[in-house]
Amino acid sequence: MLGACGIIAAEEAERICAGLEGILQDLKAGTLQIDPEAEDIHTFIEGGVDGADRRCGKRLHTARSRNDQVALDIRLTLKKEAAGLSDRLQSLIRVLCDKAEAYAAAVMPGYTHLQRAQPITFGHHLMAYAEMFLRDVGRLKDAVRRMDQLPARLLCAGGYDISHRLPNDGPPACIFRRYAKQPGRGGGPRFLCGAGVGGRAR
Question: pTM of the predicted model, to two decimals?
């Protein structure tokens, strides 16, 4: 984002991206050694981007605070997890629909308040659960939509014209301009609501 907005030079942006990619590869390979002397994870990453020369690594904080970075990372992680959970739910829904079609003529008693009611088919019974899971997919989509905002405060932007997009291919997102960024940090409650409310409805 910093390079695309012209806030830092393209060469610096490439070095930062290469350094971050190197840290990611070491993490995946299990060879990343966390420096216990580092002040925090941000300081450690700064050092990992440029080694002993942290001038380029420190540009990671340009136009945003460490809290902004944490909030952004949480949102990106939850968006990824929500997408995976949504995919699994949709796979389950397809299985339920297939089974419902197979048992479309299988008669069973319907229930209301644990009491037997009018006869229904087992297929209709299964489709009721498919609809429940479909609502869960909608909740997750809504949570992602609400998380699709770039958490950055006007106080930390330093006058830079920063991008209104999260670093993905999604739609343009609003940006928190003043003080409201911290109360909306991360989107965790939205994700948990989308995942948890449906779980209780079973």
Answer: 0.69
